[in-house]
Design a protein that fits this description.
Blueprint lengths: L6 E5 L4 H12 L3 E6 L4 H11 L4 E4 L5 H15 L4 E4 L14 H29 L2 E6 L3 H4 L5 H21 L4 E8 L5 H4 L3 H9 L9 H12 L10 E4 L7
Parallel strand pairs: 1-2, 1-4, 2-3, 4-5, 5-6, 6-7
């Protein structure tokens, strides 16, 4: 696998999974730009020192269409192209639907789903014109099977794959692919913060008897981003240890 001399943008690029995706694409030879929502200059510097000084960090609110377009156009002007786009930004606002507020619904839809439009649309034409592009959307197992207390999150993550499938049809003849990755439970700061008994219950239900590693999601991204994966489009790749087999 190789993404040598490609330009890659990763939304949510400084999060647990996003960081590993940035590192892996950089190792594969891509120039990587991580999009983050809010970081101080010192935090950016520390992140780069830990994960790669050659990975650029840009601040943007991907839930805002105008802000997203501004940043994506800046990247196009700086590098002349975006070859790989990984939509990884995401938040949760979990609660049962009977208690869910419009704000909780809207925040998740805006950040997890509307962001995919906001970031992809400004660079889509350039991918078609260049006759090369990889759009990779990081969805979730809960977009495939649903989850109690996650009507907003499940709807957004399912919507991501609907977007993937439509985009795959539009890009296929131009050499632009669109694919989804749907992780199961992954070892991140979020899952590490769970109570031990809750974590144990989750792991006991996973056939592989462990959570996934962020590096394993990054490996799937590298596979779909590579030049060699040109005939794969519209797919939803599950990386869930057998927790949901469809």
């Amino acid at each position: 696998m190789s993404s040598k001399d490609k330009v890659a943008v990763v939304t949510g690029g400084t999060g647990g999974i996003g960081t590993e995706i940035c590192k892996r694409l950089s190792q594969e030879g891509a120039k990587v730009i991580a999009l983050a929502y809010s970081m101080k200059d010192e935090e950016i510097k520390q992140w780069q020192e830990t994960n790669g000084s050659d990975i650029e960090v840009k601040l943007t609110n991907v839930a805002d269409a105008e802000d997203s377009a501004k940043v994506m156009n800046e990247i196009l002007e700086s590098y002349g192209k975006v070859d790989i786009l990984v939509n990884c930004a995401g938040i949760t606002r979990d609660t049962t639907f009977k208690k869910m507020t419009a704000q909780q619904w809207g925040d998740v839809i805006d950040t997890n789903l509307n962001s995919v439009y906001n970031v992809t649309q400004p660079i889509w034409n350039s991918m078609l014109e260049n006759k090369f592009g990889r759009v990779i959307n990081i969805s979730s197992i809960n977009g495939q099977r649903g989850q109690f207390g996650q009507a907003n999150y499940s709807a957004a993550k399912a919507g991501m794959h609907g977007f993937t499938m439509a985009l795959a049809y539009e890009g296929a003849a131009k050499g632009v692919t669109a694919n989804t990755i749907s992780p199961g439970y992954v070892e991140t700061a979020m899952t590490a913060a769970m109570r031990e008994d809750v974590r144990d219950m989750i792991v006991s239900g996973i056939p592989m008897k462990r959570m996934g590693q962020p590096e394993e999601i990054a490996s799937a991204v590298a596979y779909l981003a590579a030049d060699e994966s040109t005939y794969i489009t519209g797919a939803n790749l599950p990386v869930n240890g057998g927790l949901f087999i469809h």
